[in-house]
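Subject: design request, 193 residues
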């Protein structure tokens, strides 16, 4: 992960999404430098398992505030400013987070069921075909699958969409539908991670 292996950037993106795109709450007396004393409270066992998997692989979600997620990546704490969260529900079958990364870029991190994610990824035909083949093989084995994707946004794209999201989140009627419509608008043309 820290070396020059050709797949290292993809693996780092994968673990970054797992350690940032969630609604998990770390509890305990830890200081964020070691995993001792930190227990995760998650809305679902799956979400807790994904954050724990990232932790085991060196991406330790060690703290959060109302607007940040702090991830200890191989001993170095990095802060991700959480700009928006599009929550999971059984209709959407996915969730996403838009954050400002430690590098200053604005990125959307999304994870969800394969059937809803495949129609939202960018049209890289070969990558999509490879993914569909792998998903079919996993399904034949009876395994559950999750597709993880990301999208880099410009400041202008995010600001324009954030207005839509804020209007949806303050709607007096039809709020849930408006929030789903807002998420639908931004969760497009993503890259498979």
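Subject: RE: design request

Done. Sequence follows.
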């Amino acid at each position: 992960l820290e070396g020059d292996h050709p797949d290292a950037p993809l693996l780092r993106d994968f673990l970054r999404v797992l350690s940032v795109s969630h609604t998990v709450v770390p509890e305990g007396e830890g200081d964020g430098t070691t995993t001792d004393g930190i227990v995760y409270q998650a809305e679902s066992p799956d979400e807790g398992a994904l954050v724990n998997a990232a932790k085991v692989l060196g991406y330790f979600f060690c703290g959060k505030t109302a607007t940040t997620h702090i991830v200890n990546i191989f001993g170095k704490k990095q802060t991700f400013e959480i700009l928006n969260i599009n929550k999971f529900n059984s209709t959407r079958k996915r969730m996403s987070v838009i954050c400002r990364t430690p590098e200053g870029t604005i990125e959307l991190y999304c994870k969800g069921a394969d059937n809803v994610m495949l129609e939202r990824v960018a049209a890289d035909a070969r990558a999509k075909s490879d993914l569909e083949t792998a998903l079919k093989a996993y399904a034949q084995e009876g395994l559950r699958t999750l597709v993880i994707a990301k999208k880099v946004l410009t400041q202008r794209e995010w600001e324009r969409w954030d207005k839509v999201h804020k209007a949806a989140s303050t709607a007096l009627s039809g709020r849930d539908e408006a929030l789903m419509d807002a998420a639908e608008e931004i969760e497009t043309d993503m890259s498979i991670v």
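The chain is about 35% helix and 30% strand.
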